[in-house]
Amino acid sequence: MHSSSLGRPMPAASRRTVLRGIGGAAVLGAGIPLLSACGGSGTASDPKTVSLGSNASDAVPKKAFAEIYAAFTKQSGITVDVNTKDHNTFQEQINSYLQGTPDDVFNWFAGYRMQFFAAKGLASPIDDVWQKIGGNFPEAMKALSKGEDGKYYFVPISTSLWGVFYRKSVFQQYGYEVPTTWDQLVALCKQMKKDGLVPFAFGDKDAWPALGTFDQINFRTNGYDFHVELMAGKASWTDAKVRTAFDHWAEILPYHQEGAVGRTWQDAAQTLISKKAGMYLFGSFVAQQFTNKADLDDLDFFPFPEINSAHGQDTVEAPTDGFMLSKAPKNKAGALKLLEFLGTPEAEEIYLKSDPSLVAASNKADTSSYTALQKKAYATIAGAKHLTQFMDRDSRPDFTSTVMQPALQKFIRDPKGVDSLLASIERQKKTIFASA
């Protein structure tokens, strides 16, 4: 996954462990069932207590969620018994946890990751909750919360955005205009190079940032539906459409920072901060690197430009975190009440007061305390026709970690030989998806 819970980047080593764990042994049911529900059976079945399995082990989200649960208890009289596990451990053991005796409600991710467990019968549908909270969310966010059977299984709480980040002062200084088409983007890259700037900051040492570059180019070239099918293993990597996406990438690759495979995303961000790079295609959590307020106020973004007019800029990558209901909750009535509360603007506002690095998933939340950057991200997400989740959330994590990450690094090092690379990806994809 490109980041840990709620947009916080994980260290590279722990990311790899997570991807191996959740995509390999854990998803196939071989994980060690160390994650277990909190409290004894007496506690768990108390109608005044709901148990919740949390992956929010970082200090900021942990505190933010504690404040939400306190507000829920005050309103409902129901206590939330929180079972917090280390974020990486939670993900490595999620499958065995859900097959055992899980907590009533648990933290998870929207899109394919949620659908995977819903399809296996390891989560309960929550259509009743959505009848009450549906008005709080835009259509694209509703779509992200549904299983393949069309039922709701997920309540989103917060989201972040991927786009092209830049310094307003740099664009002003050189007289650059924000590109909205591919041709304008290529022309801007050429001009930036002439002006002595690195057009695109780029760091792929941890092997996941390039996944985001592919996502943008693929859904702009081939549209949301094809992108989702490709990620789910249903479309072929040897399809001419995929080759076209790579051809586009190869066209702008020379304008990316050299030596990307040896550079962290944080170091790439520094070149944007120091005004040595003109643009950076990344997630909105890049703002965490802008520790000087004047620099942060100067940070802006634009959605990745249109490549194919049939698809325009209608898809936005917005990894979204939230909650699910386990397969057989002990206190189902209380759990449903909690999920209903978590789907309110009130809950989101409590969360974002403690963690301003993200934006609310609801389009009814109060955004008055948002920074200009948050407001723009929120408006962009709310106005999107389609939302994607980032490659390792939209596909099987074992596929993205063992196949796509090394394949894209190989492409970055040598963009020639794409056909054999895509044939190799397709062969490995068939094997991995057949094991599901």
Structural commentary:
This protein is α/β, with parallel strands linked by helices and 436 residues long. Helices cover 47% and strands 13% of the residues. The chain has 20 helices and twelve strands. The strands form three sheets. A six-stranded mixed sheet has the order 2-1-3-10-4-11, sandwiched between helices. Strands 6-7-5-8 form a four-stranded mixed sheet. The chain has a two-stranded parallel ribbon with strand order 9-12. Helix 11 runs antiparallel to helix 12. The two termini are 19 Å apart. The N terminus is likely disordered.
From the alpha carbons, calculate the radius of gyration and give it in angstroms.
Answer: 21 Å
Distance between the termini: 19 Å
Order of strands in the sheet with the most strands?
Answer: 2-1-3-10-4-11
Helix-strand category: alpha/beta
Task: List key phrases describing it.
alpha/beta, four-stranded mixed sheet, 13% strand, 47% helix, 436 residues, disordered N terminus
In short:
With 436 residues, this protein is an alpha/beta fold. It is built from 20 helices and twelve strands.
How are the SSEs placed, and which strands pair?
Layout: H1 12-23, H2 41-44, E1 49-54, H3 59-76, E2 79-84, H4 87-92, H5 94-99, E3 105-109, H6 112-119, H7 127-133, H8 139-144, E4 155-159, E5 162-167, H9 168-174, H10 182-194, E6 198-201, H11 209-231, H12 240-252, H13 265-273, E7 277-283, H14 293-297, E8 299-302, E9 315-317, E10 320-325, H15 332-342, H16 345-354, E11 359-360, H17 372-382, E12 386-388, H18 391-394, H19 397-413, H20 418-434
Parallel strand pairs: 1-2, 1-3, 6-7, 9-12
Antiparallel strand pairs: 3-10, 4-10, 4-11, 5-7, 5-8
